[in-house]
Write a structure and sequence with these properties.
Helices cover about 30% and strands about 20% of the residues. It contains 11 helices and 12 strands.
């Protein structure tokens, strides 16, 4: 089956300094040879530390910024060859939800105007039906139609993010890029937004690229995970496989940092030494070797290739076969403790859009058969 989105060898370097004659003298290597695919109706999570290039990749996919090299194919079409009109048509099929709901909505526009704008831009709905369509979108994301007359400042952070999701859904896209959509929200609201995104995916068949540095969130929403470090992908696998048996030392370190609400749970904590190298001057060889506890001389000289083990689990590490098995990085029963489950259940309530405050336990994604 052909993938919905195919990214191959994506590169983006930003000019950081110029000479007195205007010639570039330094570049930030934000994205350096990234490749991945996204299937229809599935979620690919891009994870890694801040500054690893996750958000830059998401903007490159939509051609909000232009890549220096590589190819992006959507339903078999090369996006690099599209003119302005074709690119606008493509953006009906691919939308983005930005990180900060306080900055991504125009404060001078009502919710009705915000949701009507994409309908008018792509001429999807006759003007006589746009009010009805706005009400449908608000109900779809769990908000009441009467909110259409209000301005963004009259809503909470979670409600604003629901409006941003409704705006992305207005053009009926096939792919939505979620650029850390819950990182700016309170913990009590995150599970509501994640459950909403997953319910919409099941109902509408959406594909997601989910950008996040929070692996605890990714575990509950992703089908596949790609781990990024300094502009490159170091490991990619099905979500269940990566969380069960992470192979790259960097992935293990990230997973070991996930908080588990069980103080007595036995686990192995991996603490990386030193600072993350600068993308202005990435180290030679493996870009993780300056902080890797398993570094050898080959790591300092030769850049590892992203190689698959035949099961769809690919790792960019010279010592994958030699590393010890990950022991108790995440406890097998890494969910809530029974006492905390009762406490969360006691405060669980209806949707925020209906005016009921509450905490929702994130719904577990069923295991693949």
């Amino acid at each position: 089956m052909t993938a919905l989105l195919e990214v191959e060898g994506l590169v983006k370097h930003f000019v950081a300094a110029r000479s007195v004659f205007g010639r570039p003298t330094a570049h930030v290597k934000a994205v350096d040879g990234v490749s991945f695919t996204v299937e229809a109706g599935k979620t690919l999570a891009l994870v890694g530390e801040s500054g690893c290039g996750k958000s830059t990749v998401s903007r490159l996919v939509l051609r909000l910024i232009e890549p220096d090299a590589g190819s992006i194919r959507f339903e078999g079409r090369d996006l690099g060859t599209l003119d302005a009109n074709a690119l606008r048509a493509f953006r009906r099929d691919a939308q983005i939800i930005f990180q900060d709901p306080y900055a991504s909505l125009n404060p001078r526009m009502t919710v009705s105007q915000i949701l009507t704008e994409p309908l008018a831009l792509h001429d999807l709905v006759p003007s006589s039906r746009r009010r009805e369509r706005v009400e449908e979108l608000l109900r779809l994301v769990g908000l009441e139609p009467r909110f259409a007359r209000r301005y963004p400042h009259e809503f909470s952070g979670g409600q604003r993010q629901r409006i941003a999701i409704a705006r992305a859904l207005a053009v009926e896209p096939k792919l939505i890029i979620c650029d850390e959509p819950v990182s700016a929200l309170d913990v009590s609201i995150r599970s509501q937004i994640l459950n909403l995104l997953r319910d919409l995916q099941d109902r509408l068949g959406l594909a997601y690229i989910f950008v996040s540095h929070d692996l605890a969130v990714v575990k509950h929403i992703a089908d596949r995970v790609a781990v990024m470090n300094l502009g490159t992908i170091v490991e990619t696998a099905d979500a269940q496989a990566l969380f069960a048996v992470p192979k790259h030392p960097y992935s293990r370190a990230l997973l070991s940092a996930i908080p588990v609400p069980k103080p007595k749970a036995k686990r192995s904590r991996i603490v990386l030494q030193g600072e993350m190298p600068s993308a202005l001057n990435p180290p030679p060889g493996c870009r993780f070797h300056t902080r890797c506890p398993y570094v050898i001389e080959r790591c300092r000289a030769e850049e590892p290739q992203l190689l698959s083990d035949g099961t769809g689990h690919a790792t960019a590490c010279h010592r994958t076969a030699e590393l010890p098995a990950p022991e108790a990085i995440i406890p097998l029963d890494g969910g809530f403790s029974p006492t905390l489950e009762k406490l969360v259940a006691a405060f669980s309530g209806g949707t925020e859009g209906a005016g009921l405050a509450g905490v929702d336990i994130i719904k577990a994604r069923p295991a693949a058969l």
